[in-house]
Each structure stands twice: as C-alpha cells, then as structure tokens.
Amino acid sequence: MAIFNYQTKSMITRNRVKCAEFRKLSSFPFWDLPFPSYTSDNSHLFFHFVLFIHILTNCSLFISGILVDPGEMEKKMLLHLTILILGILSSSSMVKAEDPYKYFTWTVTYGTASPLGVPQQIILINGQFPGPKLDVVTNDNIILNLINNLDQPFLLTWNGIKQRKNSWQDGVLGTNCPIPPNSNFTYKFQPKDQIGGYTYFPSTGMHKAAGGFGAINVYARPRIPVPYAIPAGDFNLLIGDWYKSNHKGLQQYLDSGRSLPFPDGILVNGQTRTTFSGDQGQTYMFRISNMGLSTSFNFRIQGHKMKLVEVEGSNVVQNMYDSLDVHVGQSISVLVTLDQTPKDYYVVASTRFTRKILTSVSVLHYSNSQTPVSGPIPAGPTYQVHWSMQQARTIRWNLTSNAARPNPQGSFHYGTITPTRTIVLSNSANLINGKIRYAVNGVSYINADTPLKLADYFNIPGVYSMNTIQMSPK
Ligand SMILES: *[C@@H]1O[C@H](CO)[C@@H](O)[C@H](O)[C@H]1NC(C)=O
Ligand SMILES: *[C@@H]1O[C@H](CO)[C@@H](O)[C@H](O)[C@H]1NC(C)=O
User: Minimal CA–CA distance to 332: which of 360, 302, 373, 296?
Assistant: First the structure.
C-alpha cells in the first residue's frame, strides 16, 4: 500500500503480500473463504451453539468420567446424550429451512454501441448493456461466478448490499483482489434482512463510465408484508450522465491532471429515450438509481405525482412529490398511479447544479393510449441547492413500519450514547505528480497491493495504520 502524506509530501510505501502472490499460493483459501451461513433467524445459530457446547461437555465428561467416577459418568452421559440427540434433531429440522441458493454466471466483455449516436466501446455483461437485472429475495444465498474477459483487472461492487460477515466480497480494491483479465471469481453473498432497489457497478478504473452496471431488486419474503399495496409491476430506471469517450480515454484525461469533463448526455437504461408502459388505473413502482459519474439529476413524470416508499432499502414516511433529486449512487423507489386521461406522458431527468442543463426525455405510455406525448416538458429545479436540501430533509424513516423482518428495525437509543471521540473530516483536491488527487484531512488514498480487509482477516502487519489520518483537518 502506498499513502501520499500531504504534510510531509512523501510517499509511504508498505508492500507486503500482493494480490498476485496471494493467488500463487494454491493452498491459500482466498477463493474459498468461509461463507457465512445465516438462516432467517438467529435461534438457528443459537441451537448450533448449544449443540457445540454439549458436544464439548460430553467429550470432557467422557474423558474425566473414565478417569474419575464411572458411576456418575453414566448418568451424566445419558442426560447429555439425550440433549445431544434433541439438539441434532432440532438442528437438522432447522437446516431444511435454509434460505434458497441462486446461481449466476456472468461474463464481462467489451462491445460497441452508439447510445449518443456515435459508436463507442462499452462494457457488457452476458452481452447486455446495462447488465442483467439481479432479482432476488431477502436472505437468498447468491453464488455469482464473474468471468472477466476484459484486457484490464475488473471488479463489481454491490452498492448497498451490506455484505454482513463477508465484507471482503464487497468488490472494491480495498476489500477484494481485482479479477485479472481472462480469469474469474465467485462472489458468495446474502442480502441478509434487506429489501429494496439497489445497483451493482464496476469499481475498478473508470469502467463504470463504459457500463458493466445493473439493477439489484431485493424483494420481501412472501410472509413479510410491505407497507404499501403490491404494485401491478415495477420498472428499474438506471439513469446517469454519459460520456462519448470510453473509460480509457476518461482515465487518460484524469491522469493528465484535468478534472472530469462535463458529460455529453444522460442515459436511461442505456438509451436516450425509453418507454415505460402500464395500464390505466394501476399503480407501478419506479425504482430510480443514479448510475452517473458526477451529476445529480431531478426526476419527474408529467402530470403524475410520486409517492416515495423506499430509499436505499429503508421504508420511509410516504410523502407525495412532484419531482425528486437523486444524487450519484443513490437509489429510491416511488409508486406512481396511472390516474390521468389515457395518453403518453414525459418522464424527465435533468441535471442539477450544472451551468449547462442536460435533459433526458422518456415516455410513460398508457396501454390504452392513442395520443403521443404533448405539451411542454415539465420544468424542474436547476441550481436551487436549498430546495434540494429541504427536500432531503423530508425523507424520513418510517420507524413503525417493518422492513425485511417483521419486527421494526433498529433499537439503538442514539440520544443516550456518550460520544468518546469526535472526528472532523475535510476534503480537498490537489495536483500531485501532475495528477488530481482527492484527499481527506490531507491524506490521499492509493489502492493497496494487499486489500485492507484481507490484511485485517489474515493479520498481515504493516499494510495499514489506524493513525494515518488526523482527527481534524490542519
Ligand atoms: C471459475 O469458473 C469455473 C467454472 O467456469 C469454476 O469451476 C471455478 O470455481 C471458478 N473459479 C473461481 C475462483 O471462482
Ligand atoms: C408507517 O408504516 C406503517 C405500517 O405500514 C403505516 O401504518 C403508517 O401509516 C406509516 N407512517 C407514515 C407516516 O407513513
């Protein structure tokens, strides 16, 4: 790992075990780290724990019994054997309730497309741009073999998936070794107690600028009610700024010390114009994500109000909105009832906080409509920062609604926690060796040769230090 220290203007390099060396060790368990096996509730784990304790006590009793007191031993053995058998029975009946496994094989390749009218190199997954939609249910075990056929190392990150107990599969260079060209890696993860609309995208290089991203929908288990009527259908809208130059061109641009240029357009699901069709009178869920690199957008549908029901996997207080700001990386879900006269309506996303405004116009088509879109494209906020802040403040958790579990989530009493340490962070952008480097409290980050999570997991010393960053900016 190398850290550039802005105070001393020196590069601290601490190379230990690099990814390539990890891979050379055939006995090294990196590709097969223990997969955390959860089931729907923790009593299962507790039973295994009880079982384990009984096996331990039985063994020790057996040994000590032979040596010390055969008479007592027999009685104790019988008791413990009974508990052991009960334990095995209850445990095996629980194992049957294990959450379903879903298997995927995804191949990443280059392709050519002309989303903005000029042919450009894009990144495909199984031949698709955007990549395949990952439709799963809370607690599904996902086994996803990702084959990298690009000419560069590649990783996908699962944005918003908590990766509980297996954060080394989060798919960023700080946690995973990149997948080298022409090789593969099998992600194993579980959206444990999660619901909602999420996305995945490449975390390496500027690959996200070329595609390789897609939607993740985590549906609630059938026995867990969602706090709204089940919609007639749902649409994923992957909306983002887009550049005509490919990922390598953009990387060269940044490496030459310039900042990211202004985007050339906005794409919705890989196209400049998409049509969403529904039946009059029905309610549909629109899962909207900002897949862009740099630009926030405002989203609105002509003549229709949106009921915000879910934000980043949390059920929220259900307010109505005419338009909503979505910032880079964010995902929101709204319900829209097709309660207007049968016609086609504009679906608009326009850039926020930009001098020049890019607008993408798609279509909401009523299945009984004979009338194309008409009228002015509905206007949205452009530079109003305060408006955006005010709107963000209206998005609140619904603390009485369940999420992925029947009981309301979260039992922290934040007000009663005494702060022990206050950390003040300040960001900056500097030109270092001719390249723009962003920093937090004067320290910039360079991808480690040894992913930090692996260093942590395998106790590899010297890869990172907990004291690199000052607690407050200088
Ligand atoms: C690579 O893919 C093959 C099947 O194509 C699979 O058997 C193997 O386990 C995968 N390797 C990794 C590291 O995921
Ligand atoms: C919160 O969720 C509950 C349960 O679904 C619902 O009854 C209630 O109306 C919601 N509250 C708000 C303010 O949206």
Answer: 296
* Average pLDDT of the residues of the chain: 82
The pTM of the full predicted model, rounded to 2 decimals, is: 0.81
Residue 390 burial (10 A CB sphere; 0-12, 13-18, 19+): exposed
Nearest residue (by CA) to ligand 1, atom 6, is 145
Q: Ligand 1: residues whose CB is within 6 Å?
A: 31, 145, 184-186
Tell me the CA–centroid distance for residue 184 and ligand 1, in Å. 6
Q: How many angstroms is it from 449 CA to the middle of ligand 1? A: 23
State the number of CA atoms in the 13 A half-sphere of 160 facing the CB: 22
In the chain, the percentage of residues whose pLDDT exceeds 90 is 57
CA distance linking residue 129 with residue 202, whole number of Å = 13
Confidence of residue 23 (pLDDT cuts 50, 70, 90): low
Predicted confidence (pLDDT) per residue in 429-464, tens digit? 888 888 888 889 888 887 778 888 878 877 888 888
279: left (phi over 0), alpha (psi -120 to 50) or beta: beta
Sort strands 427-432 and 435-440 into parallel, antiparallel or unpaired: antiparallel
pLDDT range class, residue 305, cuts 50, 70, 90? very high
Token pair, residue 289, equals 């994500």
Residue bearing the CA closest to ligand 2, atom 2 = 401
Measure the N-to-C terminal CA separation of the chain; round to a whole number of Å: 24
